[in-house]
Amino acid sequence: MRCVRGGVLGCIVGVFVASVAAAPHNWAAALQRAKTERKFVLAYFADPDCFTCQRYRAETLDNPQLAALLRRFVVVSLPMPQSAGQLRKLVPGWQEVLPVVVFTDAKGTPQDYIVGHLNATTFAAALRAFLRGQRSDAVERRLQRRPHDLATLYEAAVWFLERGDGARGLPLAEKVLAKDPDNRKGYHAPMLVHRGLFYTMHRARIAHRALDDFRAVVTRFPQAPVADEARFYLAVTHLALGQDAEARRWLVAVLRVSKSPTLRAQAQKLLRFLDAEPPADLRRGDGP
């Protein structure tokens, strides 16, 4: 089993601002180039006026550290809502959540897609998985063969949640939680963390639900391997929601009990941020 590490910090503190070669904005030209170069197409649908989308784009599509990986695709950037018709053709079940990354072959046939904001680590892992031939349809076939196997359910839930597919991922997560209610098999706690990260990274309007999942890990399973991460993500989510006092409390808890040098360093960085920046209401422009 594995759990996403790091990256959520990118929604609070700095992201990369350097840019790789500009992606084309023409769908037909991207397909023609994909045929010529024998590559897959990576179509990025986002609102250019969405500040959060642009911050995450800087960490993913425009991240120079991922340039070599991205060169294995023909990347096309398609603005929303102008390209909504094209997106609906590729992802018929699309429900207004942005951004969306769609992988297609050179004929424009969809191969897989990811919904919502991704940090650099998760984005790079998704690209590598795609290039290795790991696709959502293969995950579904494994589920059909072993629909009641806990490990298979867990891996499928993580796969879909990391890609922002709540329609498939959330019901699977519920099955995992029900099959291992006391975390005796080691699946319940990390499943809560993954579901919390889904709410935080892919569903900003209901990010508060992540607090319940992270808090459940910390209070019910404080000795679980993922408890340290849950404390940190709890602090980050409070900070993202403008709840500075709670964020500070959990960051101090991370410093006090975490054995991870990385988490301790990130917690210290966020505490310095809280010390240096104005209160949340003034950061949002709500103050007097």
Automatic annotation (TrEMBL):
Signal peptide location: 1-22
Keyword Aminoacyl-tRNA synthetase: no
InterPro entries according to UniProt: Thioredoxin-like_sf, TPR-like_helical_dom_sf
Name used for this protein in its record: Thiol:disulfide interchange protein DsbD
Keywords assigned by UniProt, alphabetized: Oxidoreductase, Signal
EC number from the UniProt entry: 1.8.1.8
EC category name: oxidoreductase
Keyword Signal recorded: yes
Molecular function in Gene Ontology: protein-disulfide reductase [NAD(P)H] activity
Organism domain of life: Bacteria
